[in-house]
Amino acid sequence: MSAVAKSLARSDARFALTIVAGLVLVNTIIFILPLLYAAWISFHDRDVILHTQAFIGFGNYRRILASSEAIAAILLSLKFTVLVAVASLLIGLGIALVLNEEFPGRRLLRAAVLLPWAISEVATATAWMFIVNPTFGALTGVLHPLGLVEANHAWINANTALYWVALAFVWHITPLCAFLFLAALQTAPESLYQAARIDRAPAFQRFLHITLPHLRPTVMLVLVVVTVEAFRSFDLLFAMTRGGPGTASQTFPMLIFRYTFEFSRYGLGAAASYILVAIGMAITTVYYFVLTRRRRLVKIDGAAAQPSGTRLATAEKTAPS
Amino acid sequence: MSAVVLQHLSRRYRETTAVDSLDLEIADKEFVVVLGPSGCGKTTILNMIAGVDAPTSGHILFDGRPTEQIPPEKRNVAMVFQSIALYPHKTVYENIAFPLRMAKATRAGIDERVRLTAKLLRIGDLLNRSPHELSGGERQRVALGRAVVRDPDVFLFDEPLSALDAKLRVEMRVEIKKLHERLGSTFIYVTHDQVEALAMADRIAVLERGKLRQFGTPDEVYRRPANTSVARFIGSPSMNLMNGRLVESAGKSAFEGSRISVPIDDAMAAAARARQGELILGVRPEGLSTNSSGLPLLGEGRVYAVEPLGSDQFVDVAYGAADDAELIKVRTRPDARFRVGDAISLNASPPDIYLFDGAGRRIFPSDAGYR
């Protein structure tokens, strides 16, 4: 390397280091330090009234995982997440497919569809609570005159609370899914669809063999985003039901809030937060393995003549989707 | 097997006419190349034959049957695309098998045909690869395989070689020609590369701005271009064309251009006399020589540029003032030496001189003397 090239490379490296160092510093202060502090808290039992603090190792974690209240909250969270993920994935894909077609007013509709996502979760909650209000709510207002429900019908009760919150959350998050799908759909090469038509594939087969494989990475992305969003969702739930009635919609983030800010059990809250993160990561990992497709292979005539090493290497590699 | 007939075929978009009242009769088992510059409507024609685009007016007949009501999946047509368009998420095997799967062939039948096709195209050892693991030439072969495997009546090729490098293009050219011989199907091949067209076609349809300019064998379009646009398009470097008119004095006839005049013989003069007005004289670089046989190009010629190409050498000769010269390209022996600025005289032999009328239609030589 010439002296000029060397000094250029050195100046490039210095520039890169400066930029990265800034980011590392900011991240350390607002992200890594709180994380470490939370981990430290999670290993202690702290009493805010007596001002005592004792190291108890994994005691908080053990207590949470042994508590039926916490397990119920985790299961409720999982149920909520599955409901939201499945519904928003399917509806989002449906909306994207429609918006991907040519029709007059498509631009306007595309912009309008994104609105629910732009509205804050608390505002969303307020709107939905108005809709389902037993006395002056819009839903009762429409259905009661038709004789479908009695006046003052309590839409939100112990059996339905979670579903209503899930519905509101789906309404909130689906536009994002639709947009991610729409973006992916627009990059699907038109020539593939033409090729498939000429290969005599009817519309449904074209969807199955071209659109879906093309969307596979986006499905993964959407699932991860929606799962994480739903699993840790707090604002909407808090603004709509506060986990009630009773504990009917007390999801795990809601319980963490209670541990920390209602019962002031900081150690318990911090430990529960780490459990929440661990579950989220576990689900994402499962997605990765389920959605990374392995290639279907066929026997190759005269394969023995080939060096087996290269063939195996190709065969075992999974198609990056 | 299929003869394909296009009748008054037109395709108009909002402001533009992509295909303009095209008539073309393609015989069964024929290899027809549709040749034209980009944007002349070639791909539109293929799309209409395939059924993925509909004509604005006119008809397409397969073996005499109109195709208006036949959707693409019911036409037994295969297409190889410029973009190659392999299914990126499928292996080579699955790509080739796809049309058969859509036709609901049995698993064993599919396997047999895929392997046979792979063998034919020498891609048998690539069956488990993904398209992104293949080289450009291999991808092209797989795309051919996907077309061949269905045993279609008509093959459509949309500039299939334009994405390949020059060396590979020459190889694949031969292979596609061989494939046509072996399969005995009708091939309709679209390209803007006149060398590809001359090398492969049984007949070439020269297209310009959606209109058919000539339909003939490679030899016909080269030796008897119907008009100046075909003359300009076929042959490389292209034909020298000069504007001028017929001048007769003292029983002698000459073509008078602004910079060059050429004494012409009686047959040419007679043809020119029959059409009054402007004339265009055409002569190919390979029809000109620097020795003194044939008809001289009169005027002051100077060597303007020399392009040695190894097997050939092309010399640009400038006629007229330096800032306003008319350039004539001539092919010479590769070992001939020229210096820029030297005076030079050129000669053309009658069989290599073409005359076109003011509208660009060939008036000499006539078709009568051909072959």
Amino-to-carboxy terminus distance of chain B: 31 Å
Category from helices, strands and their pairing of chain B: alpha+beta
Rg from Cα of chain A:
26 Å
Note the main sheet of chain A.
2 strands, antiparallel
Helix content of chain B: 25-40%
Strand order of the largest sheet of chain A: 1-2
What characteristic shape of chain A results from the CA principal axes?
Answer: globular
Query: What number is the mean pLDDT of chain B?
Result: 88
The neighbouring-strand order within the major sheet of chain B is 6-7-8-3-9-10
Low-confidence stretches of chain B: none
Q: Give the distance, in angstroms, between the N- and C-terminal Cα atoms of chain A.
A: 39 Å
Tell me what portion of residues of chain B adopts beta-strand conformation: 25-35%
> How many beta-strand segments of chain B?
21
User: What is the average of the pLDDT values of chain A?
Assistant: 85
Number of helices of chain B: 9
Which blocks of ≥5 consecutive residues of chain A have pLDDT under 50?
Answer: 304-321
Using the CA coordinates, give the radius of gyration of chain B.
25 Å
Characteristics of this structure?
heterodimer, A: 321 residues, two-stranded antiparallel sheet, 2 strands, disordered C terminus, B: 371 residues, alpha+beta, 9 helices
Care to describe what's here?
The complex is a heterodimer of chains A (321) and B (371). In chain A, strand 1 (44-47) and strand 2 form a beta hairpin. Chain A is mainly α and 321 residues long. In chain A, strands 1-2 form a two-stranded antiparallel ribbon. The longest helix of chain A is centred in the N-terminal third of the chain and has 40 residues, at 3-42. Chain A has helices spanning 3-42, 59-66, 68-99, 106-113, 115-118, 121-131, 138-143, 161-186, 190-198, 203-231, 235-240, 252-262, 266-291, 308-316, and strands spanning 44-47, 52-55. Chain B has 371 residues and is an alpha+beta fold. Chain B is built from 9 helices and 21 strands. Chain B has a 6-stranded mixed sheet, with helices on both faces. Chain B is elongated and about 85 Å long. The two termini of chain B are 31 Å apart. Chain A binds chain B through residues 189, 191-192, 194-202, 205, 209-210, 213-214, 216, 293, 295-298, 300-303, 306, 311, 314-315, 319, 321, and chain B through 47, 50-52, 72-74, 77-79, 81, 83, 85, 87-91, 93-94, 98-99, 102-103, 111, 115, 119, 124-125, 127-130, 133, 146, 150.
